[in-house]
Amino acid sequence: MTLVSKATTAFGLILLFHACYSAHEVSNLQSYRAASLASLTTSQSGTTTSLPIDITIESIVATFIVCLGMVLGTSRLRPIQWRVWAGQIEREGEAGFKNSSGEVEKDYVGNPFKLLESRPGFIDIIQQRREFDEWAKAKGQ
Q1: Which of 88, 125, 133, 135 has the most CB within a 10 Å radius?
Q2: Any long-range contacts for 53-56 (C-beta under 8 Å, 24+ apart)?
Q3: What whole-number distance in Å separates Cα of residue 23 and Cα of residue 50?
Q4: Distance between CA 20 and CA 26 in Å, rounded?
């Protein structure tokens, strides 16, 4: 994660913590008021109040800021199609998979088709026969 994304995420978490603490304090204050009013009056009225709008807005904004910080810290998305991704690996090699600090990303594995291309089942027999014929003709002269 870059410094900007870390700072954004930290700021969002601080705001979210503050909103949670404020909600806790408001809840304690409301329960204290309800208890003190209940001791003064004999009737138990079940009045419930919601959170103040500023705490609600602060928690929503803090959640969006945390999400923004997390999105800013993610790495580049890879193509969905394997052929596009493998083509990029074959064209660019390690240079195409360097992060902002110049290091090769940890998910770089090289050519994913290298093992398949080296299997004996993919040997071109006709091409090898032509090469052998050319070699035999060159030796026979």
Answers
A1: 88
A2: 55/19, 55/22, 55/23, 55/26
A3: 10
A4: 10
